Amino acid sequence: LAGLLRFGSHLWPGVWLGSFAVNLWVSPDEPIVAASIAAGSSVQSLLGAHALRRWIGVDRTFEYGPAVFGFAAVMAFCCLIAPTWGVTTLHLAGLVASETYFDSWRTWWLGDVIGVLVFAPVLLNWRQFLPADGRSLKTLEIVGSLSLLVALTAFVFFGQPRLTGAA
User: Of 13, 48, 157, 160, whose CB count within 10 A is highest?
Assistant: First the structure.
């Protein structure tokens, strides 16, 4: 999404190729499924980029509250496409059972929404965070903030003790 917004929607084949490669890597025996999932990801990215350009704007998206809320709302809606397309493809291929369809869909949708809400703003605004005139204090602040983020993420996901049922 960030690439399509920053460099243009004509780069959608890169979205398709990246999605296809990852899905083929996960399921090498299912190239048609991987191609279909890649198509859904491409449509979602194209629609998201178009909707943001049309209704929110790209240059000042994160500078005022209503635009940030609009970004989140548009992305939550646009992120309905790939999970619906992908899980339906997996279901039709016999890889997702009817009983687990909604759980799979919900997990996929949450992953897409959280990924877009976390990474797109960073990728679209990364130049603003770089020191323009070599100010070392700003560089130190950036490195410190990123280090703290990585450390907290590692602690939350990997550093907590596991709870067991044994006494």
Answer: 48
